[in-house]
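Lab notebook page, bench 4
Experiment: in silico fold of construct C2
Operator: M.H.
Input chain length: 258 residues
Purpose: comparison with the prior construct
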Amino acid sequence: MYGPRSLRIVVKMGGNVVKDEAQVAAVARELAALRDLGHQVCVVHGGGPQLDEAIAALGEPTLKVEGLRVTTPRAATVVEQILDDLGQELAAALSSHGLPARHLDVGERAFTGTVKDPRLGRVGTATGFAVSPDAWRGHLNVVTPVAYDHTGPLNLNADEGAAAVAAWWKAHWLILATDVSAVRGDAGESIATLTPASAKALIGGAAKGGMIPKLQNAVHALAAGVGSVLITRLEPGVLLDAVAGKEVRGTLVAEVPN
């Protein structure tokens, strides 16, 4: 693990956490503690439940392929607005708990992308992430995962967005929050550690649904120079314990896991 120095940490929060005031407050306390220890933190948020509701209101079914949401051009515009609103609300909520949070909104067009797969419609693959260093420094940045190509917005999976941010920032830690305690194996057992090779084997085997993009982006992040990836449920103490090297709860994905 890492020693007692300032670390760069990217935390991906899913839509289920974002909409729960108690969970946001608990995460805020942990992020504040990390900052008090001198670490730098960025949050990338999702919005799955909120997008399901908004897209259903359009009269479009919720369809997924390998854990990724099929997004029509009409739905992409709604996704852009819903996620941008969520990011603003999350930054305000974190700020209310004493964190200097800043929302990196979609107008800044920090992510560039291309269409990932024609079957998915306006779903993007991140080809780049860049922001002004002056805008980035001094804040806990809350990043909304919407990418852009020459025709408009692309729905960017939040795990992929977090991995792109972590790669750009050369983060020491990428935390991919999920609603289960750890990655599961073929027999349903919790897996404590994975290498990129063993993570790839799960992608073609036991991993299902939303766990597939988490593992894919964990592998991509490590290849881009990110130190370690933790796939876990955001519970009290999880972030602090992992960063301090005390205990890793969840699944640690690293080149040579400890």
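Observations: The first strand starts at residue 8 and ends at 13. The CA atoms of residues 76 and 155 lie 6 Å apart.
Next step: discuss at group meeting.
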